[in-house]
Write a structure and sequence with these properties.
Blueprint: E1 2-7, H1 15-29, E2 33-38, H2 63-73, H3 78-89, E3 92-98, H4 106-115, E4 145-151
């Protein structure tokens, strides 16, 4: 098995980092291959913009359309192409991240937005009045498994009746 771990935490001594390291160790000990994309260590650019799609990006920018044209033309930036190659290599993808503000960190959201381009991760296949391409599990990434390893937490008072999430019933 080949596993890509997409890791998104800025602190190398965090619980998330320990979980990522434990996953790599466990997989390799079992005879599997593991690669890690460490978004913070890479200084991953999280913002989608026209530069991602090469010289033929439209004005105004149409992210889905332009990402698909750039994917087809091979004009995506090298960082995006490298991450797409990792996804094609992997049988399993693990996203390791903390939940912040009830969602993934912006750097990971930006990775998804930039790497999961039209004609690569979605929009593959038939486009007719009745069908607008294959969905995520039917296109290029069909057959791959995904796992989210998400940490959450806060000091105990945050879970009290006056805390952020409110009382537990």
């Amino acid at each position: 098995m080949k596993t890509l771990i997409v890791y998104a935490h800025p602190e190398p001594k965090s619980l998330n980092s320990s979980l990522k390291d434990h996953a790599v160790c466990t997989l390799e000990t079992a005879g599997h291959e593991a690669r890690v994309t460490d978004l913070y260590a890479m200084h991953w650019k999280a913002v989608v913009d026209a530069e991602d799609f090469g010289p033929n990006a439209s004005n105004p920018l149409h992210v889905a359309h332009d990402s698909g044209r750039a994917f087809d033309a091979g004009t995506l930036t090298p960082d995006i192409l490298a991450e797409q190659e990792k996804l094609l290599w992997a049988d399993t993808i693990i996203m390791q991240f903390p939940m912040w503000w009830y969602t993934m960190p912006a750097i990971l959201k930006g990775w998804v937005e930039r790497v999961f381009t039209f004609n690569f991760a979605y929009g593959v296949g038939e486009h007719t009045d009745a069908r607008f391409g294959d969905r995520f599990g039917e296109g290029t990434l069909v057959g791959r498994k995904a796992l989210l390893s998400v940490t959450t937490g806060a000091p105990e008072p945050h879970y009290a009746p006056r805390g952020d999430p409110g009382p537990h019933r």
